[in-house]
Structure formats: structure tokens, C-alpha cells
Design a protein that fits this description.
Elements (H helix, E strand, L loop, with lengths): L4 H13 L1 E4 L2 E3 L1 H22 L4 E3 L20 H11 L6 E5 L6 H7 L5 E8 L23 E6 L5 H11 L10 E5 L17 H11 L5 E4 L8 H12 L1
Parallel strand pairs: 3-8, 4-5, 4-7, 5-6, 7-8
Antiparallel strand pairs: 1-2
Helix pairs in contact: 2-3, 5-6, 6-7
Length: about 240
């Protein structure tokens, strides 16, 4: 529903014989099984969100997996598959995605780029300075999906004030786009000590982010990227605000 048949066949072959989807994304029988759980967890998370439950998939938000390719440690784009599955089951018609990972989710963007039923909003470090080099403000979607993809790039070194201002500027968009469920991809690699990027958020910044999403109905949270030793503390800080 989100990936091509050729891509799925390649993954299964790599799981048996060994292989890499990209330089940083190997496929083995073990991590393929984990990826299936990631997808199942996101499907379950959306089902629970529709019931009004507050729910988090610790293994969700693998947003670098595209239609026929991947990188960034992602094999399947779990939340995109979950959206498509619930649409197929007629449980939902439209969805929103708020992606706060420091890296642009080029896989999610590709999957929904021409789809007017999914509004994707991503706040990330300027792609001229960071992997994957995609996610510029002028990338707004195409065809029927024109205007339903919004990228908000931030300069390296951006701190809490600039970040929260950017977030506050896009949160009201949920009131303009009718939707049945919202997904939050909460990468915590925006933390100032994360080794892979250059956004300068504090630990307490994530509590403030959590507060902003606290009263969102039918929200499923995905704990995505985060590569500093403080990652668990950042998750708990978000939960202090969210719960």
C-alpha cells in the first residue's frame, strides 16, 4: 500500500541472502522482523488513537523509507502504511502528519506527494546542511496533492525560541484541513547534544512540545530519531507535557 512490489521482493531477498538498501540500511532476517513489528505497532497505534486513547509507538516514525528505496535505518515507512491500511478499511478518509525529526522525511513526502487526503508538515534542519538533502520550502506537492506538503526548514543552530515559533505557526493548520487522525513523528535528534545534527533544543523544550500536543484528539505519537545519550530523558520530558 505504500511500497512497490519490486522493493518488497528485494527486501525479502536481502533478508535471506544479506544486502543493503543503502550504505546505512542493511536487511537481515532479524531487523526485518523488527520492521514488521514497527508497522504493526503503528497500525495498532492509529486504531487506538481513533478510540480516543493516548498512544505511542516507540518503534514508529521510520520516515526515510520511500516507495522503492530507503536509507537512514528505515526499511518500511510504518506510519504511511498504517494510514493507507486504515483508509483501505474505510476507518479514516484523511490524515495529518506533523514530522518533528531533525531530518526531513523524504520517504513520507514521496509516498503522499500527490495525495490530497494526507497533509504532511515537516519541521527540520535546512536540507542544504543535512541528510537527506530533500525537504525545501518550495516542495509543496504535485498534481492533486499540490499544497498538501509543507516543509519548514530551520537554520543550523536554531534554538528553542525559533523552533517553537515555527511549530506554533503550523499547529493551527489542523483546523483548516479536515482529518480523522493525526500522526506526530517526534524525533528528538533536535536536541543540542545530538551528534548527527545542529538544532539546539534543551531537554525542557520537549516538555513544551508535549504541552502543545496534549489536547490533540485522535493523535498517534511515533518516537523516531534520537542519537544522544539523553534520548530517554527527552522522551520523558515530552511525556511530562503530553500527559
Amino acid at each position: 500500500m505504500a511500497h512497490s512490489q519490486d522493493y518488497l521482493k528485494r527486501i525479502k531477498r536481502f533478508a535471506q541472502e544479506g544486502g543493503y538498501l543503502s550504505i546505512d540500511t542493511p536487511v537481515t532476517s532479524q531487523n526485518l522482523e523488527a520492521s514488521y513489528y514497527s508497522v504493526g505497532g503503528s497500525i495498532l497505534a492509529l486504531r487506538e488513537a481513533l478510540k480516543g486513547e493516548k498512544v505511542i509507538n516507540l518503534m514508529g516514525g521510520l520516515h526515510h523509507a520511500g516507495i522503492s528505496n530507503s536509507s537512514g535505518f528505515c526499511i518500511f515507512n510504518d506510519h504511511s502504511i498504517a494510514i493507507r491500511k486504515l483508509q483501505k478499511e474505510k476507518k479514516i478518509k484523511k490524515a495529518m502528519i506533523y514530522d518533528l525529526d531533525v531530518h526531513a522525511g523524504q520517504g513520507t513526502q514521496e509516498i503522499f506527494y500527490s495525495d490530497p487526503k494526507v497533509f504532511t508538515i515537516s519541521i527540520h534542519q535546512d536540507p542544504r546542511t543535512l541528510y537527506p538533502g530533500i525537504g525545501f520550502a518550495e516542495e509543496r506537492g504535485e498534481g492533486l496533492g499540490k499544497g498538501y506538503n509543507l516543509n519548514v526548514p530551520l537554520a543550523p543552530g536554531a534554538r528553542e525560541k525559533e523552533y517553537l515559533e515555527a511549530l506554533d505557526s503550523v499547529l493551527p493548520l489542523r483546523k483548516k484541513f479536515p482529518h480523522d487522525v493525526i500522526i506526530l513523528v517526534l524525533g528528538v535528534d533536535t536536541y543540542k547534544e545530538d551528534p548527527l545534527a545542529n538544532i539546539e533544543l534543551e531537554i525542557d523544550s520537549y516538555r513544551k512540545i508535549g504541552e502543545r500536543f496534549k489536547d490533540f484528539p485522535k493523535l498517534a505519537v511515533m518516537f523516531a530519531g534520537g542519537y544522544s545519550k539523553a534520548t530517554p530523558d527527552l522522551w520523558f520530558s515530552f511525556l511530562k507535557g503530553y500527559l
